[in-house]
Amino acid sequence: MKKLQYTILILIKYASLLFGSFLSIIPVVVCAITAFKTEEEYSRTNVMTLPENWGYIGNFKIAWEKANMGKAFINSLIIMIVVLAGAIMIGTMLAYVLNRFQFRGNRLIRNLFLVATLLPGIAMQVTVYQIMYSLNLINTMVGYMILMMGTDVISIYIFLQFFENIPVSLDESAIIDGASYFGVFFKILLPLLKPAIITVAILKGVSTYNEYYMANLYLQSKDKLVTVATSLYKFTGPMGNQYNYICAGVIITLLPALIVFIICQKQIYSGLTQGAVKG
Amino acid sequence: MSELSVHKSSGKSKGFIKWLKSSKGQRATVVVTFMFIPLVLLFVFTYLPFGKMVEFSFFNMKYIGKREFVGLRNYIDVFQRDDCFKALKLSFYYMGASFVQLALALYFATLLSFKVKGGGLFKGMLFFPYLICGIAVGFIFKFFYTRGFVLDSLLGFLGFDLEKLPYWLKDMRINNISLAAASVWRYMGQNMVLFIGAIMSVDSEMYEAAALDGANYWQKFRYIILPSIKTIVVLNLILSITGSLSAFEPPYVITGGNFGTGTYFVIMDRIAHQNMKVGLASAMAVILLIIILFATLLQKMFFRYVFNDGNEDSSKKIAKKMAKEAK
């Protein structure tokens, strides 16, 4: 009796996992299937039918050209490098000061960053737009990159947590050795922060790569300032029904995220967990 | 590094303290230079816009050109117009969805925390939607829900009559549920990963002890897993309620807010960036911010009241409860 019960439980467990995973990937899988169909095949067959020729890449070529994805990948790469470098510098420096120095206002500053997370980003863009406008930063890569750097609290928390586990005695002995605070930070602590930096780089990298709302708002000239995420906007409007092209475009944009995910699964999971604990 | 270790032993000497006092100036320099940029960014892109938002909400204005002080007119409009405040009722769909989402996440997290064949693969598949760009999600679901396409075909295999199926994105009776389901699809995996992280942080001896006492799955879940992840579940519950008030992405990328799917923020975005009624949009934002802050506060108080017993020392309690159950 007990054994039967156990078998049934195991059965339910695997059945629900299979069902859940199926639902998770089926929208994307069907999209991939459609991306490999020729125009004629797409209009003739049901969406669930597998393509006749998996080697047909015509849709990808057309999507790549129509959405100007070559340019988009270059722009996204530039944005990611600058934003990651900036966000990591800003985040580590701030976390260093907040963790290692006791001064009046330390707590206040921590709270200011915490409260900032409560304000929904979309609502703030109503007036951030006006500020960007008066700073002449609309339609410039620089403006967008500054904006992306300044709006990240999660990474600051990941760095803060990491600093708590680095003994202060390390700083102290270096200072006795004659190192300056700048020296301590750049030569001793920054290298030790490597795991945290990698975690932040992956998380922030994926979110920067995928960011579309602000990119759409602040990088309006879509031929020059297109990013990978906003390149997909090309498919709205007249092309809105040609799903064989659209799906090809979608698959191209999610491929880098998929590769990063497969390689860095562990860091992504642990990074998410670290960022959430203190939030 | 070798030099470093030599000096470590004398690290707490008086010379160090003396030196510290004389270097107050240097400390201040570091604090100021390191914090200058982050604080400027925080001020310019968070608190300044917040202040401006309150200011703008009293004006009839566009981004460019003259503005006119109108007092509380915008606030009155938010409550009187048909498309503004009433859009908040759509939040209930997303609130319902987020409860489903948390329940599913908890269920899968519990399953995946124990030994499962292919566990990593299942986890990856359930989580991956979270990493897809929002715009791509929009296209994927437009495609998924189109008449005769993915969802209809799937239901067709199960024997549903295609003629009787609704238009998932156009039918006003069902389209908000379709969108909320897309939201569950996207974010369930993220909740699940957080929960797995919390469950894994429980001492594995607890499970072994429970197994020795002959605890079944439900007892393990109820008395070991649930107490240990209570904090993070409550945190996510709070986030999901405020999150559903500010639901934005699914309607924005899938239907563009048409066919009665425009949530509060989608309408606000349209009023601000398409109709250029910046004053009205600011008033909408301020009202929702007040509601969100109020809701957050209320929820925190409520959960503190409900959970005020034994936050820290739950392990002892569990042990006692297990003992009682065993008897």
From TrEMBL, chain A:
Entry's transmembrane regions: 12-36, 73-99, 111-135, 141-160, 181-203, 243-264
Pfam families per UniProt: BPD_transp_1
Family (UniProt): Belongs to the binding-protein-dependent transport system permease family.
Domain ABC transmembrane type-1: 73-264
GO terms under cellular component: plasma membrane
Species this protein is from: Anaerocolumna aminovalerica
Name used for this protein in its record: Carbohydrate ABC transporter membrane protein 2, CUT1 family
Location in or out of the cell: Cell membrane
Any one of the GO BP annotations: transmembrane transport
Alphabetic keyword roster: Cell membrane, Membrane, Transmembrane, Transmembrane helix, Transport
Chief place where the protein resides: membrane
Domain of life: Bacteria
SUPFAM superfamilies linked: MetI-like
Database matches in InterPro entries: MetI-like, MetI-like_sf
Membrane topology: Multi-pass membrane protein
From TrEMBL, chain B:
Family matches, as Pfam families: BPD_transp_1 (PF00528)
GO cellular component, one term: plasma membrane
Membrane topology: Multi-pass membrane protein
Matching InterPro entries: ABC_transporter_permease (IPR051393), MetI-like (IPR000515), MetI-like_sf (IPR035906)
Keyword field: Cell membrane, Membrane, Transmembrane, Transmembrane helix, Transport
GO BP field: transmembrane transport
TM region(s), chain numbering: 28-50, 92-114, 126-145, 223-248, 278-298
Keyword hit for Transmembrane helix: yes
Domain ABC transmembrane type-1: 91-299
Superkingdom, taxonomy of origin: Bacteria
Keyword Transferase: no
Cell compartments where the protein resides: Cell membrane
Listed PANTHER family: ABC TRANSPORTER PERMEASE PROTEIN, INNER MEMBRANE ABC TRANSPORTER PERMEASE PROTEIN YCJO
Family assignment from sequence similarity: Belongs to the binding-protein-dependent transport system permease family.
Protein name (Swiss-Prot/TrEMBL): Carbohydrate ABC transporter membrane protein 1, CUT1 family
UniProt lineage: Bacteria, Bacillati, Bacillota, Clostridia, Lachnospirales
